[in-house]
Specification:
Elements: H1 7-31, H2 38-56, H3 62-77, H4 84-93, H5 104-129, H6 144-170, H7 182-191, H8 196-206, H9 210-238, H10 247-252
Length: 253
Amino acid sequence: LGNRVPASLKILLTAIAVIDDLGAILVIAIFYTTSLSLMNLVIVLAIFVALLLLNKFKINFLILYIIGGIAMWYFMLHSGVHSTLAGILLAFAIPFGKGEKNSLSYKLQDWLHKPVALIILPLFALANTAIVFGKGWDTGLAEPGSLGIFAGLIIGKPLGVFLFSFLAVSSGVCTLPLGMKWKQVLGIGFLAGIGFTMSIFITLLAYTDVVMITESKISILLASLVSGILGYTWLHSLLKKPQAIPLKKIKNI
């Protein structure tokens, strides 16, 4: 949609995407933990506190945080809690300051941007999204699990985003940015239904039956596609192209 999209809408969608992934990781940590090792968890907590202290005393040696992050990942992996949580803890510990470009966190994000976008995410997609279309694969789309996925991503996401935003504004917790309209918030909600990465990740943890995994993956991808089309079409109808100022008016100004 190009420059017809206000910056406030882009920021809102980005924030929802980040918080949504954090929520999914917490779900994984809480509900997909079968056994716990308290000793390993205590060690993870101790390392995290040590990293927070490094941050507090403004020690900006990245290698110390990387070593601490690897150690946290190792002990988290052996604690029974999903090791993804270690990455979240490390991100909180790395100095961010006020978001300046010379902060350690900003430099690390900038350095990781291309490898993550061009290598890690494609590998993740290939490793987790491989689907074998067997005979009668489409009949599984009417199963309760598939219908739940469709309902969650296509209906639940826009309703959740819209209603919680409305409640937050109505209660005075926040206000809508200048120029943003509720119809646009609903459009962002449709786009939030594009949720195939963490959805497929949780599918692989939740199910062991190959048929159910395949049906869920297909449902997630189809629901994400429908959500994307709905969001694009909705916002395309709402957001008008910025009008070019005639040359004569520019000269008069």
